[in-house]
Amino acid sequence: MRSTVNKFLLRGVLLLGAVYFLLPIWWLIVSATKSSTQLFGSPPLWFAGGFSLFDNIRDILTTQDGLFGRWLLNTFLYAGVGAAGATLFSAAAGYVLAKYEFRGREAIFVAILASVLLPAALLVIPLYLLFSQLGIINTIWAVLIPSVVSPFGVFLSRIYAKDSISDDLIAAARVDGAGDLRIFFTISLRIMSPALITVFLFSFVGIWNNFFLPMVTLTDNSLWPVTLGLYFLNSQPSQMNYNLVITGALLSTIPLIAAFFGLQKFWRADLSAGAMKM
Amino acid sequence: MTTTISRPAAPAAPPAARRRSGFTAMKRSKWRAIVLLLAPFLALYVLAYAIPLCYAVYESFFTEKRSGLGFGAPERVFAGFGNYVKALGMPEFTSGVWRVLLLGVVQVPLMLVIALLLALAIDALANRFAAFMRLVSFLPYAVPGVIAAILWAFLYLGGTSPFVRALQPLGVNLDFLSGGTILWSMANIITWTWTGYNMIIIYSALKAVPRELYEAASMDGAGPIRTAWSIKIPLVAPALTLTGVFSIIGTVQLYNEPMLLRPFSPAIDANYTPNMTVQNVAFSLNDYGLAAAMAVLLALGTAVLSFGFMRLSGAMTARKAAN
After folding, report:
1. CATH class of this structure's domain B83-322
2. What predicted TM-score, i.e. pTM, was given to this entire model?
3. A96-126 tens-digit pLDDT
4. How many pairs of residues across A and B have Cβ atoms under 8 Å apart?
């Protein structure tokens, strides 16, 4: 009897939690269907009469000569290319640090890992000065170069390679005459694919969320990612463009949610949990 | 890239020598792999992490001095720890530091406890409802941080907030954006975004616990709460430590939320958090040396807090295991 009561209580509390997590997203979806005046005149959590979603989408995509579309594309470029690069580079580095023994290996690994502790402010401002001197400030490289370096990706790749690629397999491939590079590209990378997808996805989200770095390194608004663009739209609160900000927010969230839930079966959160075993 | 290519073509070599040359070819292949696979990452790491770090540390020891009347080009002079002393004496900087510490002391434990309870509940239920909860609580993580802040800004803003509007008829006037509440309104945004992410990490650690341990505990007469307290929680302690360290690092660097809420709340100024102060000092005051010193102090503080937390949770786990 007591345990049934407890079970109901537990479910009740969890359901409240679900409401908490879903409510803002529900509000976003509902609000994107409202015109700017309806935003203030209608119940916040329910649809207003009339459906302005498509008008809002058309408005956000055409305002300032379609700058918003450009921002979305930029974000796709930064996040897609950046995450692909981050995945490849960290997989290669993590694999070497897991499977080869050489002097200085641990020192390199600790240095990479320790950089997780560095605050963005410490790196972004020197990067600004450095990129200014290299002449790549205010270009896509100012965002892409820092994005492809993922210390946490190296960390995950190393753990995964260590656990999943057996030394016997590598030895057998060598006996068959395969060189080390070929072993990596044809055998090891395939075995590491769950780790690769995880690193890709988390880097993708990280770069999609990037805000401080482009804020400092990009002044040309045609190069901005969507986060910076929305910040700009949002920082001039005239109630006239609230519906644009909200619709823009919805449009730039959908791809990420789709990526996470589309790839749900493939990415492995427990990888980061396994991280503590080291 | 096969080893045969680099093997010398002398067929008459004695067996021992041939074996050796095969060995060196293997070694060469190994070294080539180490260098070619590690070099791209390391080169970029040096460019994006090592050089900026050294640059910042170097810069933090210099200051620009203007001649008496402020005419002429400023002169760069070695300042020793001058920038550090100046940073620590600036109320704009220190108040931001205290603010994020206060936020962290309250928000991080609260979020981790919720994440832990959520993970325990989902693990215990292990049904379709639990799977639904897992998905739903993780959903906010897939919402970009900047978007989450914008979203909540509207949920806090009088005219569009369902909370404010729901309570107004009852005579309660909520203000989420005033000086007294804004910090906790941000704490809520962070909790909303990260609880599910932390839950997933803790939940994965729970999944890895061998089920026989639970059976043994229930044979010994331990109830579900006792089992959770004495077996499950100690076993997921490393996951809690990891999520704790990440949360501390994130809190010290608070930037997105205050930047996005700033247009809506007069309580947020340009120096609200340390990261904002660093940006402000570097680009509004053009004092890179001072900004760099602040950033170095932040990095040191983060490292001390993270290692302190790791040791503390290590000691607590050890004591628990001893009982």
Report:
1. mainly alpha
2. 0.88
3. 999 999 999 999 999 998 888 888 889 999 9
4. 290
